[in-house]
Design brief:
It is a single chain. It contains 22 helices and 29 strands. It is of the alpha+beta class.
Length: 900
């Protein structure tokens, strides 16, 4: 006997939350939601998310003057004077005269702090000259590399209470770097950090008489060449043994909020920071992305954690990441309030932790916490309050929610029978269709852009255009995909109702089916977040708390206002308050962060192609499109479920298409340029002298390449100078390969001499039980070079300073990537240039007759006449780009073949 449902017309109109109209004298149930209400919801969500982002990441404290803060406070006005002095030096990389001036300036500022300190505070200043060293990091950006350094100088400042000698045995390290890359003056990276440290040191020098721990400020050099400054301090300076916690200050952009993007492994530091910081800022999602390798970068914090075994915090400015390591990292773009934000947070944190008696337990605590995995999960709410809880508590919460979710879903399916099971399957289908359509629409745009635009990444200078180019088609695709699933689901439910509710008219049955389908679409959004929670919990992903929030709160709102366990319930329209109640907190804690991360992805497109021309032009845009689609499908799934029974579908679709067309038109027409003078394309100009043996005489040419996706046709036309572009002009720069390059040999014989060409000379080759080859490396005029060693042929090696016999790299502990181990060497002006390399061959050699055994590139920061002329003609929307693996403006290539 079938179950039949009987309702009155009053129930169907009033209690069910649907409208009623007269049709031939009969009451007809109509499932329809106000289009204005739906549009109002969309406006509210969009404006709300943007308001959250603005308040969380754009609202900065007012800069304070020295008079306002007095002796003990933090003044951005005072700190900015340091930034101005350091940026006035221009680029100051390792080995440059400008860096020597920068060191002298910081040293003088430190000495002034010593003079003006509180009479009960001991301030020690050390100009530390590090001896040669080698840094082999296990993972991250420098895996498979040995970072060798020499002739580095740092300024070290220690502040401690004069009459508490035990404080000298326990210290907090605050660290940043003075040096910059050769391509920028480094206002953000990291003159801003150095300035904050100097102002912090000045303030703390008037507080430290009450401390139980000392504070060490390390102003290091060599960070940009491979974290060498941090490594030399940790391994060589006598004060390093007293450090119990490390704080690193960095910049991945220029200004804005300085947020924590790495913390731990001990939770102690982040927990205490959350207690006292005035404007707490930090997201464990950034830490998850950084440690996963998605963000290709490294900071000194890796050395402090991996080499020294320390816990602590890693801060970074991340506004306008597109200017990173380019000429646009300049003073005028440093946003007011940025230094005040970091300075006040750090001052409160240092005053709190330096006075703590628990810090001396830091190393042991870090080791114990790391071993049992009870790390911290953290995130800030609107940059005003920080939530921190332990992984152990997270495990309990996640396990509880996962089990309860499974019980609720299982119970509802058992009570609903086969109809509920099939409806669940079809709602899952709607989710899949939503993802497929959304990804298809947005990635199609990414594939098309290189064909119709002057740049495959036309959104870098104007990130807001991402909304029109990718978010609009992604949202339209999500709406269409879910609507297709809705129609399929509604059709099935209508058939099921027709069998169970024969006493109702087909019109009523159809309208009830619409309402029931809407509910299943809402619940399907819960299901995708449930899957993410399970996966994140299994892999111990810190940012799994996001899945928890987006699952529990919408589910709670639904259960409170909508749900019933009765299998014979009457469908009702979802209440608007259900959506508002369920999504308010999730959007509050993550809406601004999702926008911020999109901006970071946009900025990283400038340096996306680590091997220029090695990736398809569309790849960077595809990654951004996938990210935008994923955020829309995950966060707007509940909101989209409200659209299908409203009259707003057509308007929303037309509005999405209109925004997309207008954005695309602006890009194609050039109304919105991909790059500007302040947000540049990364382009490198290198005078290459190739003495690798491919030619009888050294070949000299100028190479022009870019880490920003896209060909250089427009730039070459602007420059002239006889450049020819193509993949046939690939250049192996040892640390990377410029697969697409523009070359010219015109006027390339000036500005260098044969005496500058490095030499790889085989001194001996003994073939006993273990084949040993002794090679001399003479880098000539260069104190910055990269050497690749073929690990298919060479099992191990040793490197010595030929001038004094000092062993720089010992036997053992080597690893390779793609068959090569790379040595990156950098040093000051007095660094050695001649080295002895001992190569121990593998027993099972490949016996390659035409392969290379060694590849050498030496760099010189010198402008030859041709390069100078090219740089003068370089378009204003272009900038040189520097990093540890980049060649400088003059490079020499040499190699040694296997069959030497």
């Amino acid at each position: 006997m079938r179950n039949r449902v009987k309702i009155s017309s009053k129930e169907s109109s009033e209690d069910l939350g649907v409208s009623k109209k007269q049709t031939k004298g009969k009451d007809v149930v109509t499932a329809k939601r106000s289009a204005f209400a739906v549009l109002a919801l969309f406006v509210l969500v969009i404006q709300g998310i943007w308001a959250v982002h603005h308040y969380q990441f754009e609202s900065l404290p007012a800069p304070l003057t020295a008079k306002q803060v007095g002796k003990r406070g933090f003044s951005e006005e005072a700190a900015m004077k340091h930034v101005e002095e350091l940026t006035r030096l221009g680029p100051h990389p390792v080995g440059s005269d400008a860096l020597e001036l920068g060191l002298q300036y910081v040293l003088a500022a430190a000495e002034e702090i010593k003079k003006t300190a509180h009479w009960e505070v001991d301030v020690e200043v050390d100009l530390f000259h590090a001896s040669s060293g080698a840094n082999i990091l296990v993972g991250g950006l420098f895996k498979g590399r040995t970072l060798v350094y020499s002739d580095l100088t740092h300024v070290v400042l220690r502040i401690s209470p004069k009459y508490a000698s035990e404080a000298g045995d326990s210290a907090i390290l605050v660290s940043s770097h003075i040096d910059t890359v050769f391509s920028g003056e480094g206002a953000g990276d990291c003159s801003s950090c150095v300035a904050v440290m100097l102002e912090l040191a000045r303030g703390i020098s008037h507080w430290a008489h009450g401390f139980k721990n000392s504070v060490i400020f390390l102003f290091n050099t060599g960070e940009e060449e491979g974290l060498n400054g941090a490594h030399s301090f940790i391994t060589q300076h006598p004060w390093s043994s007293t450090v119990r916690m490390a704080i690193d200050l960095e910049a991945m952009g220029i200004g804005g909020t300085s947020a924590i993007f790495q913390a731990g492994p001990s939770p102690w530091a982040i927990e205490n920071y959350a207690l006292v910081a005035k404007y707490p800022s930090g997201q464990i999602l950034a830490q998850d992305l950084f440690t996963s390798g998605v963000i290709k970068s490294a900071t000194d914090f890796q050395v402090y954690k991996e080499v020294a075994g320390l816990s602590g915090l890693d801060f970074a400015y991340a506004d306008n990441t597109a200017v990173y390591h380019t000429k646009n990292d300049k003073l005028k773009l440093l946003k007011p309030g940025s230094l005040q934000h970091l300075g006040e947070n750090m001052l409160a944190f240092l005053l709190h932790t330096a006075a703590s008696s628990q810090l001396s337990k830091g190393n042991a605590m870090a080791a114990n916490e790391k071993s049992d995995g009870d790390t911290a999960i953290y995130f800030d709410i609107l940059g005003t309050y920080m939530v921190v809880f332990r992984q152990r508590l997270a495990n309990m919460l996640y396990n509880s929610v996962i089990l309860q979710s499974m019980m609720i879903w299982g119970t509802s399916i058992v009570m609903g029978g086969s109809t509920a099971a099939i409806s669940l399957a079809l709602s899952i289908l709607s989710i899949l269709l939503m993802w497929i359509c959304s990804l298809s629409f947005s990635t199609a745009v990414a594939f098309i852009l290189p064909l119709i635009s002057s740049s495959p990444v036309p959104f870098i200078a104007n990130p807001l255009i991402v909304g029109g180019l990718f978010a609009s088609p992604a949202f339209l695709g999500a709406l269409i995909g879910q609507h297709i699933g809705y129609v399929i689901l509604k059709t099935y439910i209508s058939r099921a109702f027709s069998k169970r509710m024969e006493n109702l008219s087909p019109v009523v049955q159809g309208n009830w089916a619409k309402l029931e389908a809407e509910r299943w679409l809402y619940k399907s959004g819960l299901l995708q977040w449930f899957i993410l929670l399970v996966v994140g919990h299994y892999f111990k992903v810190g940012s799994s708390y996001l899945a928890l929030a987006w699952l529990v709160l919408p589910a709670f709102a639904y259960g409170l206002l909508e749900a019933t366990l009765s299998p014979a319930r009457v469908p009702k329209a979802l209440k608007t308050i259900t959506l508002l109640l369920g999504l308010f907190v999730p959007f509050l804690i993550s809406g601004g962060m999702f926008i911020r991360l999109a901006g970071t992805v946009v900025g990283m497109a400038v340096r996306f192609d680590r091997n220029p021309g090695g990736n398809p032009e569309w790849l960077g845009s595809v990654i951004l499109a996938v990210y935008v689609s994923a955020v829309i499908c995950l966060t707007l799934v509940y909101l989209i479920s409200y659209v299908h029974i409203s009259g707003a579908k057509n308007f929303i679709a037309i509005a999405s298409v209109t925004v997309f067309v207008l954005s695309l038109t602006a890009v194609i027409s050039g109304l919105i340029p991909p790059f500007t003078e302040d947000v540049s394309r990364a382009v490198n100009v290198v005078h290459v002298v190739d003495a690798s043996g491919k030619y009888e005489e050294p070949s000299s040419y100028i190479s022009l390449f870019s880490t920003t996706p896209g060909k250089l046709t427009k730039e070459v036309e602007h420059i002239g100078e006889g450049f020819v572009c193509g993949r046939e002009n690939a250049v192996d720069f040892v640390t990377f390969t410029a697969s697409y390059s523009c070359l010219t040999k015109d006027d390339s014989v000036n500005g260098w001499s044969k005496s500058d060409i490095p030499i790889l000379k085989v001194e001996s080759d003994s073939r006993t039980d273990v084949r040993l080859t002794e090679v001399t490396i003479d880098a000539k005029v260069s104190t910055r070079w990269s050497l690749a060693i073929n690990t298919n042929e060479i099992e191990d090696f040793r490197l010595k300073d030929a001038e004094n016999g000092e062993e720089l790299i010992q036997i053992g502990g080597k690893s390779g990537v793609d068959g090569w181990h790379i040595i990156q060497y950098s040093g000051g002006k007095n660094a050695p240039t001649r080295f002895d390399l001992s190569l121990y061959w593998a027993k099972n050699q490949t016996q390659g007759q035409n392969g290379l055994l060694l590849k050498l590139r030496t760099d010189v920061d010198r402008l030859t006449p041709k390069v100078k002329r090219v740089l003068e003609k370089l378009p204003s929307w272009c900038s040189l780009f520097g990093k540890s693996t980049s060649p400088q403006t003059l490079s020499f290539l040499s190699n040694l073949r296997v069959d030497f």
